[in-house]
């Protein structure tokens, strides 16, 4: 096994999300070597060629199409391959399709690399993150999913627009499943360090409780709406993945709502869900069990049960 290159990233899957993720990584200067791997080798080669032609506009980066053997020294392996969600489908509808695909992908990865960090993006991301942990044999800290990092960004974006405050000054999390049972954590949501319930009275636009609930609903249904209108989502999720990659490669100790194995958090075990998590060069440094409301804890547990019910019968 080769020594890991701390600045090498492998992206498995050169479809819309995979190719756009490679683009986001390249534009932001995250990683000095990026290899694209896809069952359709010609597609991967075309995407890599297109990206390479912009090399003079970005930080130096070696980007190319390769095979699984090329990820033997990759620090970070990002998995975007799998069946895409279609209009009218839920993320959970993809379970059986992508479980089979992942069994082949994970065995191919571990044949060449057992020391890197695995970042799962393919949906249903929580179930596939759990499957990846089980199949890979990697330690808990080195298997994570993109989880609700995108949902949390959507949450902040909608609050930003609603309250007329830059998204960078809005702080809030979506936890639980990346999907229909996700949980907005209103008890920890704040603007400029002020809890949302205290900020609303001083805001020019006073929010009623039902208006805030509409924001939660819009976050949950955003993916469906985009898929209905344009057929797929890939820009924002690629930026979310690039954010996670940056936290890992630059050893940031950033707090992001990635999906990882639950080890008793809020009473949940033996499955993967999203919670605010400290991310650095080791992958997961610490899952933060923050003081949330009783209702939010109950909703988080309900989200866990929802996923548990959907993985019964899977050979994991």
From TrEMBL:
Binding sites annotated in the UniProt record for NAD(+): 13-18, 38, 43, 68, 82-83, 98, 121-123, 146
SUPFAM superfamilies in the record: LDH C-terminal domain-like (SSF56327), NAD(P)-binding Rossmann-fold domains (SSF51735)
Major site of localization recorded for this protein: cytoplasm
Residues binding substrate, per UniProt: 85, 91, 123-126, 151-154, 233
Protein's pathway: Fermentation; pyruvate fermentation to lactate; (S)-lactate from pyruvate: step 1/1
Residue ranges of every copy of the Lactate/malate dehydrogenase N-terminal domain listed in the record: 8-145
Free-text activity regulation comment from the record: Allosterically activated by fructose 1,6-bisphosphate (FBP).
Active site: 178 (proton acceptor)
EC number(s) stated in the UniProt entry for this protein: 1.1.1.27
Modified residues (Phosphotyrosine): 224
Alphabetical UniProt keywords: Allosteric enzyme, Cytoplasm, NAD, Oxidoreductase, Phosphoprotein
Listed GO biological process terms: glycolytic process; lactate metabolic process
PANTHER family tied to this protein: L-2-HYDROXYCARBOXYLATE DEHYDROGENASE (NAD(P)(+)), L-LACTATE DEHYDROGENASE
Annotated family: Belongs to the LDH/MDH superfamily. LDH family.
NCBIfam families listed in its UniProt record: L-LDH-NAD, PRK00066.1, PRK06223.1
Function per UniProt: Catalyzes the conversion of lactate to pyruvate.
Stated name of the protein: L-lactate dehydrogenase
Source species of the chain: Halanaerobium praevalens (strain ATCC 33744 / DSM 2228 / GSL)
Gene name of the record: ldh
């Amino acid at each position: 096994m080769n020594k890991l290159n701390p600045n090498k990233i492998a992206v498995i899957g050169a479809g819309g999300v995979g190719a756009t993720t490679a683009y986001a990584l390249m534009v932001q200067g995250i990683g000095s070597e990026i290899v694209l791997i896809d069952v359709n080798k010609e597609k991967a080669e075309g995407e890599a060629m297109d990206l390479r032609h912009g090399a003079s506009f970005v930080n130096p980066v070696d980007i190319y199409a390769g095979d699984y053997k090329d990820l033997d020294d990759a620090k970070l392996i990002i998995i975007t391959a799998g069946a895409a969600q279609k209009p009218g489908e839920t993320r959970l509808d993809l379970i059986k399709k992508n479980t089979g695909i992942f069994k082949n992908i994970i065995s191919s990865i571990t044949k060449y690399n057992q020391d890197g960090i695995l970042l799962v993006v393919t949906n249903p991301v929580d179930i596939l993150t759990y499957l990846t942990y089980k199949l890979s044999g990697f330690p808990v800290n080195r298997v994570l999913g993109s989880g609700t990092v995108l949902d949390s960004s959507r949450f902040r974006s909608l609050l930003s627009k609603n309250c007329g405050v830059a998204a960078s000054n809005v702080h809030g999390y979506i936890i639980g499943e990346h999907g229909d049972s996700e949980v907005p954590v209103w008890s920890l949501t704040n603007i400029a360090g002020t809890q949302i319930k205290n900020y609303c009275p001083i805001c020019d636009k006073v929010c009623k409780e039902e208006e805030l609930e509409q924001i939660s609903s819009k976050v949950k249904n955003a993916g469906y709406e985009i898929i209905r209108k344009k057929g797929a989502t890939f820009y924002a999720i690629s930026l979310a993945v690039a954010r996670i990659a940056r936290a890992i490669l630059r050893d940031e100790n950033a707090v992001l709502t990635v999906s990882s194995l639950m080890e008793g958090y809020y009473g949940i075990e033996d499955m993967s869900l999203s919670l605010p998590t400290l991310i650095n060069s080791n992958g997961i440094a610490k899952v933060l069990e923050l003081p949330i409301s009783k209702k939010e804890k109950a909703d988080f547990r309900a989200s866990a049960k929802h996923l548990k019910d959907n993985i019964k019968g899977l050979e994991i």
